[in-house]
């Protein structure tokens, strides 16, 4: 029998020894989640489980601690078996272009992952830089113009601020940029449905790689 401390040590060693393999598994599960593809997610999930269990007690404990009760499974299964896709489209058809917060209120179980997947499938569209969603045949020129005027007002306020002799904007340091990118990446993972344990694991991996270099590499690959 292993003590709790022994299992934690074995799990940490497993995570360190197979870091690159675990990263590939997680990347594939994130991609499946983005596409709301339950079958693909479960295929990767089961391969991950088999891989972890084949590496002894450390791998088994790691899987049980990080992935055993993965909430993405139930979410993706509900979406696969339910009419949520049609509900969002129907809501936008009846109410017109709407912000995501209104969609969440009116369509039960709708969330950011669903809207992202529908957008990638071109079933709905998003006004760039906003939280407004609409159907391909809907006119959003009025909303875009209104948002543009708001942006112009903010720009003028910023110009007036500088004319008054207020200090200019100081460029952030590399450390500040890295911290901001880390915060945004954490938010991204949270939106993708990862648990806090899974987020801690992924972020630990990125920090070890050098987060800023990882972000630049990831951006180029896109």
If you had to describe this structure to a student in words, what would you say it looks like?
The protein is 73% helix and 3% strand. It is mainly α. The protein has a 3-stranded antiparallel sheet. A hairpin with a 5-residue loop joins strand 2 and strand 3 (132-134). Helix 2 (19-34) runs antiparallel to helix 3 (38-53) and helix 3 packs antiparallel against helix 4 (57-66). It is flat.
In short:
With 222 residues, the protein is mostly helical. The chain is 73% helix and 3% strand.
Strand order of the largest sheet: 1-3-2
| SSE pattern, N- to C-terminal | HHHHHHEHHEEHHHH
The radius of gyration computed from the alpha-carbon positions, rounded to a whole number of angstroms, is 22 Å
Low-confidence stretches are: none
Mean pLDDT: 81
Query: How far apart are the first and last residues' alpha carbons, in Å?
Result: 47 Å
Q: What does the main sheet amount to?
A: 3 strands, antiparallel
> Helicity level, as a percent range?
over 70%
Keywords:
222 residues; mainly alpha; flat; 4 domains; 12 helices; 3-stranded antiparallel sheet
Annotate the secondary structure layout.
Blueprint lengths: L3 H14 L1 H16 L3 H16 L3 H10 L4 H11 L2 H12 L2 E2 H7 L5 H9 L4 E2 L5 E3 L6 H23 L10 H18 L4 H14 L1 H11 L1
Antiparallel strand pairs: 1-3, 2-3
Helix pairs in contact: 1-4, 2-3, 3-4
């Amino acid at each position: 029998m292993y003590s709790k401390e022994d299992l934690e040590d074995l799990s940490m060693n497993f995570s360190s020894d197979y870091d690159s393999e675990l990263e590939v598994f997680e990347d594939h599960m994130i991609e499946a989640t983005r596409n709301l593809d339950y079958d693909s997610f479960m295929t990767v999930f089961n391969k991950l489980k088999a891989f972890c269990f084949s590496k002894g007690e450390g791998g088994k404990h790691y899987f049980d601690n990080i992935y055993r009760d993965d909430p993405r499974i139930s979410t993706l299964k509900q979406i696969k078996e339910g009419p949520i896709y049609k509900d969002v489209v129907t809501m936008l058809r009846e109410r017109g272009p709407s912000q995501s917060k209104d969609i969440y209120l009116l369509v039960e179980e709708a969330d950011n992952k669903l809207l992202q997947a529908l957008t990638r499938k071109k079933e709905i569209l998003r006004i760039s830089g906003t939280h407004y969603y609409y159907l391909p045949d809907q006119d959003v020129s009025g909303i875009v113009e209104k948002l543009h005027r708001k942006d112009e007002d903010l720009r003028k306020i910023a110009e007036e601020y500088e004319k008054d002799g207020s200090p200019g904007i100081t460029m952030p340091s590399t450390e500040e940029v890295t911290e901001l990118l880390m915060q945004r990446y954490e938010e991204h993972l949270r939106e993708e449905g990862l648990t806090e344990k899974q987020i801690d694991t992924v972020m630990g991996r990125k920090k070890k790689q050098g987060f800023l270099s990882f972000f630049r590499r990831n951006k180029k690959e896109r």
